[in-house]
């Protein structure tokens, strides 16, 4: 069998390829060469990117086999997460890989602006010795405003605390108590702008944050303000910044990120009071190795059909080892449920009973939904788009947990209501040391049968000799019955039989059985392996 193709679209640490291992056909492409990227995506199961490759709707659509987009870094503004989710493609990043490097670069920019290190270096290399021109300022007792007190903002605060600076922050999503623990005072954006000697920005680029710093904000700032942006280009309006720096409305700026990267013919590069770096926040050996290894591990998990802790568009996270065996069982129960339902479903309860119910079992809800839609929709169903498919169909989905399970150590049930009012249910469990996957209930009938590839479910009126009647039909069609369970509520009442058969029923067999036993229900339910 051909190995899945993993496409590396940007330069990554060699540790990435090592961590991917021998199981993939690893190919490279320049992610900024659009036609080449689109062509290469056609065969890719996974694509690994940094910040220069645009994985938009068009690129995602070009990846017909694509299962995972892995961003070796933090920012995901170059990935259309909504389009990926709709297409069932998992998006993962490496959220902590480069935060130390990015924080250290921000501190480096702050020190460069305080002490004119880049300018002095350039001047000396030009043969000059200008000591008074490059007289700087100390950070000690200066007010430093941190915009965004998340992972990187926090690391910056911890590092700047060592300089004896007075730290203030603006982050509407951070509590004053959390900030206080870091020795930072939370203030409004206006207060931060008015009070700061330095501002450093560490927020995501969103419609809300684009242009957060423009002419109006610079008008409120001290003329001595030095501002640093190592987060995303465009959070500072570049035209307004040019104006503020060239008119000395503010003192200086340090930028690692730009609206267009690389910024072609930007007037900012003509200014003396700006320090520019070409998006180097994550460019350290350590960060690149961490990011590469982290996404390689995520890609391996994702292509093995596992949930990935760093997936950003899948609820799942770390899966407890006790819960893990329930995932394939739940997927199969989902397929049985859809086979039984045979009509539009309006609600689904995913019930987890027994000791695992006390753990985080959200993943079992995803597995059930994946199973339910696997043989129902034409698109490929994954943990990513299964909840969306339920939402699009207006299906109300609930996860019900109960630590008490009377008969089985753990019992997984999918119970649903159809739009015509019919109720359908199937339950399963894992038994014995081999953890055999069994169906133990169908539509309220108790059964106990190992799950197989092909099942026949029959409902008919209980009467003597009926097994011989349908057994004859299967025998004459050359179909071997591997397992059978009959369940009934009362003698002579309705009975439900589940058979497992070794091969699919040929055309005409089900009809023949139906008329031979006068079955009310007769369905073949096949399980598609993930
Ligand atoms: N220059 C580079 O190479 C790198 C840049 N980055 C960028 O740095 C930025 C920060 O990354 P992390 O700290 O990992 O993110 P994070 O998600 O941990 O923190 C972001 C913080 O911003 C806050 N926030 C969101 N909207 C805000 C608003 N309107 N005003 C104020 N605060 C707001 C959030 O509450 C959160 O605390 C991101 O844009 C990321 O893409 C990350 C790594 C390297
Ligand atoms: O991969 C890179 O160099 C970009 C790093 C970055 O900006 C991020 O991780 O958000």
TrEMBL record:
First-level EC class: oxidoreductase
Annotated metabolic or biological route of this protein: Amino-acid biosynthesis; L-serine biosynthesis; L-serine from 3-phospho-D-glycerate: step 1/3
Coiled-coil features, chain-numbered ranges: none
Catalytic activity: (2R)-3-phosphoglycerate + NAD(+) = 3-phosphooxypyruvate + NADH + H(+); (R)-2-hydroxyglutarate + NAD(+) = 2-oxoglutarate + NADH + H(+)
SUPFAM superfamilies documented for this protein: ACT-like (SSF55021), Formate/glycerate dehydrogenase catalytic domain-like (SSF52283), NAD(P)-binding Rossmann-fold domains (SSF51735), Serine metabolism enzymes domain (SSF143548)
Gene Ontology BP terms: L-serine biosynthetic process
Location of the ACT domain: 455-530
Keyword Methyltransferase among UniProt keywords: no
Keywords noted in UniProt: Amino-acid biosynthesis, NAD, Oxidoreductase, Serine biosynthesis
Pfam families: 2-Hacid_dh, 2-Hacid_dh_C, ACT, PGDH_inter
PANTHER family in alphabetical order: D-ISOMER SPECIFIC 2-HYDROXYACID DEHYDROGENASE FAMILY PROTEIN (AFU_ORTHOLOGUE AFUA_6G10090)
Function: Catalyzes the reversible oxidation of 3-phospho-D-glycerate to 3-phosphonooxypyruvate, the first step of the phosphorylated L-serine biosynthesis pathway. Also catalyzes the reversible oxidation of 2-hydroxyglutarate to 2-oxoglutarate.
Name of the protein this chain belongs to: D-3-phosphoglycerate dehydrogenase
Organism (species): Homoserinimonas aerilata
